[in-house]
Structure formats: structure tokens, C-alpha cells
Amino acid sequence: MFRTPQKVFTGGLALLFLFPLVWASVASVSPQAGSAQIGGWGFGNYRTLANYQAGIGQYLLNSTAVSLMTVLFTLIVSLLGGYAFAQFRFPGRDVLFLVTLAILMVPYATLLIPLYVLLNRLGLQDSLLGLALVLTMFQLPFATFMMRISFEAVPKDLAESAQVDGCGSLRTLGHVLVPAVRPGLITVGLFAFLAAWNDFITPLVLISDSAKMPLPLAVANMRQQVMGIVDYGATEAGVVVLALPCVVLFLALQRHYVRGFMSGALKG
Amino acid sequence: MTLTTVPERSGLDSGPAAGSRARRRRPALTGWAYAAPTALFVAIFFVTPILLVGRMSVSDWGLFTGDRGLNAPENFTDVVEYRLFWPAVWFTVKYTVVTTVILLGLALLMALIVQESSRWTGFLRTSFLVPSALGLASASLLFYALYSPQSSPFGFLGVSFLGTPTAALWSTVALIVWRFAGFYMLLLLVGLQGISADVYEAARLDGAGRRQTFRYVTLPLLRSSIALCTILCVTGSMLAFDQFYLLTKGGPDNSTLTIVQLIYNFAFFGGNHLGRAAALSIMVLAALLIANVLQFRGLRGKEG
């Protein structure tokens, strides 16, 4: 159904979408005035990045720690919450579910101003743990909704037969239900990772100690160095380092990701 | 969004009616135990901050000085009288309208292009979707380098991408379209695939052309997907921050200052007044709720 003119047009559109990524990758290793890579091709810009202030290792470590904590918290809370909402009746269930979804309706900025004060009072100012807890809260509406419908899609007999076999609710969850809701867990985990890895405004407000900054903040700050002259080469290298794990994860899990979308959360 | 479609499930406690009271109460306790982490998170990190921001909005609350007592309604009047307030509101609305129209129009076109499955459309889908994997901040930094006169591959054009207010607006819209078009395409694709082939077949038998089919069959049946996309896009654009903070810093001459940037500036960037930032946050929350209610009404009204 695609004739040549249509292929040219659609192919051109696709190239338009791929171009900025390809350009950034090439530009980060190509010679450029005003960067660490002046003559010839090479990794000078990545060396600048590696040696910036606390070192890229520290920022990568910060980002990784925050992302993994966020994924872990989100998975635990939404797994248990989704199980509760889908399989149990308890007073306040519907109110709690609606309030959890209401997080979506409130702008980040509206919550971050009081959270800045609140985390100070909890002794979690400038802490990666505090940041991960806040990022987990932002993930809860999607994660809880996703896990609830995942549990609801599990045939009821499965849980019941496990209970007849003498499993308590915890063992039913662990042995029977977790394998059944694994696709939901992967989707929730992936979204939590991408959100935590990429979030900018939350650490911008909550983290002021430059040694604790996650990578996006460090790369953004790196631009305004050396007497106001921007090192674009190092910026491009930073973008590549930031984008690489996301693009790899996306391509690896694309089939799952797209299918999860098509079949799950947004149907109806 | 799709709450209404969640089926009511009676759960494990709907056992035989013969169960005693005690046996009926236990699942409720177990249910609460599993829901407790969610409840704890929501209470500490969502409900408490909401109450606190309400309190802060009516208090003289400095960034370093802390709470210095009630001062209502001073924060609100200070915010509205601030000279950059109305320009920021106007710019945010303009940006929201421009972004939503262009983004959804293009996403719909892309969804129609990749609708059928083939190897070529598989390649197209992946190409359109890859930018969605990037964070908005990474994408903004990428376009920052892409637009800068020193490093831009478009240097030969002699265009200043961020130099004038109009150019800065369109350059940012281009970044957002690049980053989000694939995502909205995916949402619309879900809707398109929900339309049964029989409907198209019936339209064809009735002698409808491609345009008529699109206008009278596809668009009406896609309404709920388009409504979801519109609400997401309007909400996201009204709360725009990262792209302007990184790309334009609100410039040139504060012409691209958005409301959320204004909140940030009140709180941390020179303003150091958390009370005013809280007051403006409350106003944004109210505006967002009103906008979403109006959209729900408008989009539902058309259906009737």
C-alpha cells in the first residue's frame, strides 16, 4: 500500500525524528571549537564530562541509586496496593483508590513547594532517599491503577484454588499471583525507572548539595561553566549518556511496552 | 480516565453466605494490611503537602525564615499584581493552544500512516517513538545544543532559533512535538485499532470516499482517544517547565516565562518567598481543575 512517493514522504518524516539523536551522538565525538575535542575525532568531551566537579561517576551513581530505589518502592507499594484494591473489600477502599488517582490531578509544582518544607522537617532534606520517596509518590497513580487491573484480569479460580490448597493470602500472592501479573510489574517498573532517571524539576527543587545531584541536573549545570562560555561538546556528551540507557531499554522492551499499552491501561 | 470501565469485583471475601462475621471481617483487615503502604505514602507525601500548601499560601513564609504568621490574602494579591503575572498567564495559554493543536494534528496523521502492520510501518513506528524514551530534560538539552549558533548544524541558515520571542516559542514547540508526537500517536493508534473493520466495510459499501470515511467514521469513533490525548496535552502544556527552564530561561526579556517557572522563581530564584509560590500553586491547581472539568464537559457534550 505504500507507493514510492509515500515511502519517500514517510521515510523523510522518520528521518526527521531520528536526526536529532543521530546528530547528538556524532557531534559528541566530532571536532568542535570551544570544547575539549578541538582537532580530530575522539572522546575528549566525555573526558570533560567525567572530570566535571564530583565526576560523572558520582552523578551516575546518584541517578542509578534514586532510580533503583524508586523502582523498588513503586513495585512493592503498587503490588500490595493493587492486590488489596482488586481482591479485597475493606472500608475506605474506594476513597483511598480515588485519592491515589487524584495525585495525577495536582501539578508537580504545587506539591514540591510544601514537600521542600516537609522533607526538611523529616530530616530528609538534600537526601537521595527523600527524592526517591517523592518520585515514588508521583508514580503511584499509574502504578496502582495498572496493578489493580492486572490483578483483576487474573482468573478468580486461580487464587481460590490456591486458598483451597491451604495457602494464606501472602503465599497466594507470592506463589500464584506474582507470576500472573508479571507483565504489569514490568510495565510499572519500566515507567518508574524512566520517570526517576529523567525527572528534572523534582531534584531541582529538593536537592541543593551539588554532590548529590542526579545526572540531568549535573549536565544542565555544567553548561554554565568557565566564565559563562557554554561547552556544547560536553553538553552533547551528557545528552548521549542520559539518553543511552533509556533508548536501549525502550528498544529492548518495545514489544512488551507497546503491547502493554495496547492491551492494558488505556483500553475502554 | 477509564475508571468507569473498571469492573466491580467482589473479591475473595464473597465466599458462601454462611461465613461467620469473624470470617467476614478478616479479609477486610487483610485488605487494609496490603493497602497500608499505599495509604501511608498517600497520607505523608500527598495529603499532608496539600494541606501544608494551603496553609503556606495564607502565611508570610520565607525560604530561609520559615513561617512568620498568617497574612491572608496578601500572597494572592502580591502574585496577581506582580508585573510578570499576566504576561506569564497569557504566554502559557498561547503555548498550550499552539502545542495541543499542532501536536495532536501531527500525531493523528502519524497514527493513520502507521495504522496497518507491515515491516515498513514497524520501522516508522519505532522511529517516531524513540524520542519518547528520552527525558524531557535530556531532549531540551539536546535541542539547546541543536539551536545554539556555535554548535548548530543549521548554522548556515543564519537563523536565530531562540533570539526573538516568536522564534523561541516556535523552537520550543518543535522540541515538544519531536519529543511527544510518537507518544500521542501510540495513544491514537490504540483507538484506531479499536474500530472494527466491518464499520469501514459498511462505509465503503455505502459509497463513502476516503475523506468522507475519515470525517464521518474514523473521527467520531476516535473521540474518546482524542479526548484523552487533549486532556493529557493541555495539562502537560499548562504545567510546562523543563523545556523553558533549560532552553530559553524564560527569555528573551521574560517573553517565554510560564506559570510554573514563575512559581519556581517566587520560591527559589531570587524571590525566596514560599508563601507567594504556594499561593500561585493553589491558583494553578484551581485553573487546572477548571480546565479539565470544562474539557470533560465539552468533549462529552459533543458525544450526546
Descriptive tags:
heterodimer; A: 268 residues; mainly alpha; MetI-like fold; 12 helices; globular; disordered C terminus; B: 304 residues; 2 domains; two-stranded antiparallel sheet; 2 strands; disordered N terminus
Quick summary:
The complex is a heterodimer of chains A (268) and B (304). Chain A has 268 residues and is an all-alpha fold.
Please provide a written account of the structure.
The complex is a heterodimer of chains A (268) and B (304). With 268 residues, chain A is an all-alpha fold. The longest helix of chain A has 32 residues, at 56-87. Chain A is built from twelve helices and no strands. Chain A has one domain (46-263): MetI-like (MetI-like fold, Orthogonal Bundle), CATH 1.10.3720. The radius of gyration of chain A is 23 Å and the shape is globular. Chain B has 304 residues and is mainly alpha-helical. Chain B folds into two domains: 51-84 and 266-304, no CATH class; 87-256, MetI-like (MetI-like fold, Orthogonal Bundle). In chain B, 70% of the residues lie in helices and 3% in strands. Chain B has a two-stranded antiparallel ribbon with strand order 1-2. In chain B, a hairpin with a 3-residue loop joins strand 1 (59-62) and strand 2. Chain B is globular and about 75 Å long.
